[in-house]
Amino acid sequence: MFKDQVAVITGSASPQGLGCATAEALAEKGCNIVISDISQENCDKTAAMIAEKYGVKAVGIAANVTKKDDVVALANGAVEKLGRLDIWVNNAGVLRDDLFMRMSEEAWDLVQSVCLKGVFFGIQAAAKIMMKAKRGKIVNISSVAGLVGSPGQANYASAKAGVIALTKTGAREYASRNICINAIAPGFIQTGMTGVLPEKIKEELAKMSPLPHQGTPQDIARAVRFLASSEADFITGVVLRVDGGAAIGL
Description:
8 helices; 7 strands; Rossmann fold; alpha/beta
């Protein structure tokens, strides 16, 4: 399905994260992978694991998504190392939860920079290369929090709502170049990032889903893989909820 294609996934070095699961889901179908995260060492380890496990080409390129030069270098590095760029997944994210009245400016700025500005830079850098090829798929990881809000997450929810707006705007602007831009809105998924939340909060978040089982990183990864595939060539500007029904009715 993805033979000889190249995908960049930001925030993908952690074995417990959505990014790594997405990289594996794409590699399973023959896609060559660029693992990107803050640490070059961690990127290299995950890339080596994927290359060995799936028999594809995989490289690690460290990048801080809050820095435009890093993101541009990541996009160019994918082409330099693997020859092309077909798929870009804006997955990098952080949490700095606190109640509205107690949230610090630093916590606000960090989450906005990683979760929103990082997506903006990613779309810019990927689309610039994809425009030349007159094709490409960009998938942004938003959140159900960006649709319904989430107590204690004013920074995160607003950033993820912004990702939805960026997705729709980018989809309109780049459609004429045959670049499809879509978003996934996960519900509560047990990952390394959400694992640090207090147990009581995790229990409450899990109860939001009508389904009797909890979502996994692989559930998100398979949805990303669909939107990145040729089966989704006539889909753009869509926000696909993968939330176990937590936001039914939206």
